[in-house]
Amino acid sequence: xxxxxxxxxxxAPRITGxxxxxxxxxxxxSWGVEAPENHVIVTEIHTDDGxxxxxxxxxxxxxxxxxxxxxxxxxAPFVAGLPANPEVVWDALWKRLHEAGGGGLTTIAMAxxxxxxxxxxxxxxxxxxxxxxGQRQESAEVYGSGVNLHYTLDxxxxxxxxxxxxxxxxxxxxxGKPDLREDRERVAAVRSVLGPDxxxxxxxxxxxxxxxxxxxxxxxxxFGLEWLEEPIRADDLWAYRxxxxxxxxxxxxxxxxxxxxxxxxxxxxxxxxxxxxxxxRVGGITPFRRIVELARTNSIWVMxxxxxxxxxxxxxxxxxxTMVEDVEEASFEQLxxxxxxxxxxxxxxxxxxTDQPGLGFRFTDNxxx
Length: 369
Fold this sequence. Notes:
Elements: H1 3-11, E1 15-26, E2 37-47, E3 52-59, H2 64-79, H3 86-97, H4 105-124, H5 129-133, E4 140-145, H6 153-165, E5 170-174, H7 180-194, E6 199-203, H8 210-220, E7 225-229, H9 237-246, E8 251-253, H10 260-268, E9 274-275, H11 285-297, E10 301-302, H12 308-315, E11 323-327, H13 332-335, E12 344-347, E13 350-353
Parallel strand pairs: 4-5, 4-11, 5-6, 6-7, 7-8, 8-9, 9-10
Antiparallel strand pairs: 1-2, 2-3, 4-13, 12-13
Helix pairs in contact: 2-3, 2-4, 3-4, 6-7, 10-11
């Protein structure tokens, strides 16, 4: 570390405390019996000069109490006294927690610290996180998405019609029914609603093995698919390498990869066309930016996964245009857990900033559902 950088670390405000609270909110449109609600672990970082940064961790199903406990009992004591520099803290914290796992619950918890520190940095500079990191895009495309495998065919068609009415030029639906003929019927029905010119993506959420994926592609690829998302267990690099080599449809994955090393492995193995890092699951903005640069140097597209109010802000910092996923009626604003204005605005299938300072997230004490 050079002298100026070392001096910056020594003179940076120091973290004096980390507090957390858990919000559990029912989804307005259930994601199925296994995911009727979402969990947000709200975080607040304090510094010795009176500063405060606001962030969050998130999980739709597994481990919200575990994430909160990790933050309260292991992370908070460790970060106390560290300089309030998000990248310095992230690297130190990842090494500290690695014994409990290099990714997963550890990185989900780390995101709560990282987001709060970036919020603090940008707020001190009097700008949004997007402006602080360097805004490159005025707006980004938003695609309509839904956790809808449990929908009836009529419900799925009605959802697709709402997306078209809202002006979306790209949509994504779930596949993976026990009978492939039913998947074909559903994809065909949605394509009929969309017409030939809108983009259609499908997501199997790890429901198939490699032979089943090839059988599905034989049946579904005729519908002009933009990508097939995570058809096989996300850990199975060997299968994805085989799949991408022979697939007529681009392969997307990444929501269940948690470290830059796993993204590197899939990219170097030529096993993926599009990566979809979830900013919270990878540990926050710090690792997300590193993953983006890795993808960019290998000519791989980046499409951030879920959390549109967070993903939308980071999408506007990317050098290459991207699309932001917006699951119907599942944003923090729509779930009624924001105490103030949303940091982004969705209009005409585009996302733009509302110029809130920092990350712009303030969460209510009493969610309105």
